[in-house]
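#structure-requests
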Amino acid sequence: MGEKFLSPRSDLIFKLLFGNEHSVEILTDFLKSVLRLPVSDYDEVTIVDPYLLREYDGDKLGILDVKLKTKSKRTIDIEIQVKPAPEFKERVVFYSAKMIAEQVGAGEDYSLIKQVISIIITDYTLIPESPRYHNHYTLYSPETHSEFTDLIEVNTLELSKLPDDEDGTKLWNWMKFLNARSREELDMIAERSPEVKKAIVKLLELSNDERTRMLYESRQKMEWDNVAREMEARLDERYVIAKNALNKKLPVEDISEITGLSRQQIETLSGGNA
């Protein structure tokens, strides 16, 4: 019961669970719990290249976690974001625009454009204005309560808002799976949902695969190293600010309040003479 498993919130594990041709059944079950598409649209779900096309030299390259097309040629992007990122909402809009633009070549009819849908899963609160863990957005007028178009649709799924008690939806089971921290939680969800059980079986297979675990641990180490470098850079920046403040004869107490450094740390910059 205490068996360890790799976190499905890792972008690597998430892609292995949902982002290849062997995962289409699992992916389809997940999509049905989130989206309001016609049932027939799921008859053909095709995983496609996650790289968004560049339109010109120097254009930003977009890389999606999972990208797919449905029977009606809708394009769906699924991304998981564990930690807050600068300008994340802007990035979602940019990727949506890229998925629209890559559908129409020069001189082609705009009527060829098919809906693009983003499913954004976060392990933090992305929409503080709403208590809901699933929010659904299109281009919409708040004044007239009318929809301009649904060609761009964004669905946000926030794990931080998931209630402990089930709410009767299939989506709750999927969210509980993604948020699971123990084998007991996985066993509980497997009993509740045959659809999610398939994903749990796949997750445990991946967790027992030596190569996958090595890739996962390598990715984790890279992320920890990045965090360490960011923390070191921020500390260096605070030391520079503190040194400049000492040169201006500001009191140590004020410098500490400004930088968050301790008195001892500040005094090391002045040779103990602060």
